[in-house]
Design brief:
about 70 residues, 4 helices
C-alpha cells in the first residue's frame, strides 16, 4: 500500500511542516507507516528505500502524540 503524490496532497495540509535539514519527505514517512501497518513488521525491518527506520519511527511517534495521525486516518 502506497500513496501517490496526488493522494498525498489531500492529507498534506494535516501534517506538520518539516523543519530543519531533514532529507526525509512526509510522503515517504506516511508510506513507511502504511508499510509497517500492512505487513506487521518490526520498525527495524523497514526496507531502506523508506529511509532510516529510526527517523521514520521518531516522526511517527511525534505525530501520534500530537494527534496528527488521528486527523489523517
Amino acid at each position: 500500500m502506497r500513496l501517490t503524490p496526488e493522494q498525498f496532497e489531500l492529507i498534506a495540509p494535516l501534517l506538520p511542516r518539516q523543519r530543519g535539514n531533514v532529507p526525509l519527505e512526509n510522503l515517504a514517512v506516511v508510506n513507511a507507516i502504511l508499510f509497517v501497518a500492512a505487513n506487521g513488521c518490526k520498525w527495524r525491518a523497514l526496507p531502506s528505500h523508506y529511509g532510516c527506520w529510526h527517523t521514520v519511527y521518531t516522526r511517527m511517534s511525534r505525530w501520534a502524540k500530537a494527534g496528527v495521525l488521528d486527523a489523517v486516518f
